[in-house]
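FAQ: What does the model actually see?

It sees only this:
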Amino acid sequence: MNIGDRIKELRKELKINQKELGNLLNVTQQVISHYECTGSIDASKLSTISKRYNIDIRYFYEERPLSDFKTAVLRPNSTQGPDIPAGWHELLDDVSSLEQDKIRFIETVVRALLKEFSS
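And it is asked to produce this:
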């Protein structure tokens, strides 16, 4: 199995189409098709995919099942804190750079969503 096959396999597992993956990588659906057919893709694009979908980049290079490469959570530096889902550190960095009124608005929305999904 080559890198292109692995990209396609991952895309199918995630239930996303070529256009959606293309949007992530800022390329067209046709370019994703080319990656899947040829396996010719920059390592930086593989890195973007692996970070976004919490998959160890070695997945693209090694012949093991996808389940071996999923990185579900990142442990915080402190042993006191909760597990933080992988990829959220970037989200938290983005939020922390906003103005306080926008952060409060986001907090209000997140709390409302949590209440909705907890019911």
